[in-house]
Amino acid sequence: MSTTRQHPPGGLGREPDGTGPAPAVPADRQWRTLSLRQASGIVPMARDFARQALHDWGWLPATGADRRAAAEDVLLVVSELVTNACLHAGGPEELRIACSPKVLRVEVVDRGAGQPAPRTPHRAGRPGGHGMFIVQRLCLDWGVARTPDEPGKTVWAELAAPA
User: Fold this and answer.
1) How far apart are CA 163 and CA 161, in angstroms?
2) Using an 8 Å Cβ cutoff, are 143 and 156 in contact?
């Protein structure tokens, strides 16, 4: 079973183009942070870190198909966001994952100036260019946060916790 969800633009917070309000971060979230500066094997390291967090938070080992799909979605989103930072933003600086009872949030901090966006038109049969399209399809919401007068950005994505 897929955890893909469709939501109307603007219905859940900041738009991928950076406009609109950033969603409030609940205080009850448990945060994990991994520095990725000057690391090698960044994508597998990030996935292993996320997998361990999911295990610690009780998402893994999954007890059913829905929980397994939710955990796999998180690992895929982590891979896509970290890979995107490697390919287009000079590499990620940090991976942050937060868990609350209803939402899991993934954040990748990089020093890049670019603005991630799904490629349009999306061409499913062509290699490459699917990362942000996948993130958009799997997540409740995603966006980019920038700090004024500081380089870089934080690309964030939120996924629903399994029922």
Assistant:
1) 6
2) yes
